[in-house]
UniProtKB/TrEMBL annotation:
It is found in: Cytoplasm, Cytoskeleton, Flagellum axoneme. Keywords: Cell projection, Cilium, Cytoplasm, Cytoskeleton, Flagellum, Meiosis, Repeat. Residues 1-20, 250-265 have a biased composition (Acidic residues). SMART domains: MORN (SM00698). Residues 21-31, 266-291 have a biased composition (Basic and acidic residues). Functions as part of axonemal radial spoke complexes that play an important part in the motility of sperm and cilia. Residues 1-51, 223-298 are annotated as: Disordered. Transmembrane segments: none annotated. GO terms for biological process: axoneme assembly; meiotic cell cycle; spermatid development. It comes from the Eukaryota. It comes from Lynx pardinus. One of its GO terms (cellular component) is motile cilium. This is Radial spoke head 1 homolog. InterPro entries: MORN.
Amino acid sequence: MSDLGSEELEEEGENDLGEYDGERNEAGERHGHGKARLPNGDTYEGSYQHGKRHGQGIYKFKSGARYIGEYVKNKKHGHGTFIYPDGSRYEGEWADDRRHGYGVYCYVNNDTYTGEWFAHQRHGQGTYFYAETGSKYVGTWVNGQQEGMAELIHLNHRYQGKFLNKNPVGPGKYVFDIGCEQHGEYRLTDVERGEEEEEEEVTLMTVVPKWKATSITELALWTPTLPEEQPPADGTIQEEAPGPEGGGEPAEDDQALADLSEGEADLTRPGEDNEDATREEGREDGQEELRYGAIDQE
């Protein structure tokens, strides 16, 4: 989903003074606490410093949007909450009028993103929760797109692997709650579709990642590896913690599930539950289409 927001809700600049009721300094500048009604119909109440919004304040747009948080020299900077006209909201860190740092964005369709931001875009580590299906993407983001190592968690299984340009690529595995894993890789496949345009046949190519399974194994439980402790110099040996019960030879693999073949497996792509779930994202000047598992960033 896109999360365009306050960049399209311009605040009045320092020269658009409007009406003001509040404290001033010796030079006559707005300085201290005050209330202002600006020429465009917006209002601001909070701290000023040398004529500029500076410190804690509440800015209300005539559209119904509002910002509650910190300012530095007329710009949103620090911690603040921005509530958009459609009810979506962002709460977190700001820098130079942009979402920057750590924050939580709650969309109008109840999806949420929790994580790092850079220059108004999802960037770094973050978790995107899909409210309609209960699935979530946990991993890295680059310039608003799912990219890097991540885990896509569904209700009864999860996919672990690498993403690039919003799509899974390369080796990965599906982990099923019934106690098995399917290993394989996503390969980019060209899908052709023909269209007629001005009585000429035009063939368009669409690149779609396709899952190819290679093996099915028992669930691999991860356990940390601790460094071996050296015995004390005086020759005494400390008592070791007992190992896990059932130690010894590993158990044999369970019989492979009949419904999971080792060849081509038409598993649902990460982010899909047998069909594309089209989502509407909240933004103040309109809504845009989102396909589940592939988030469009403007």
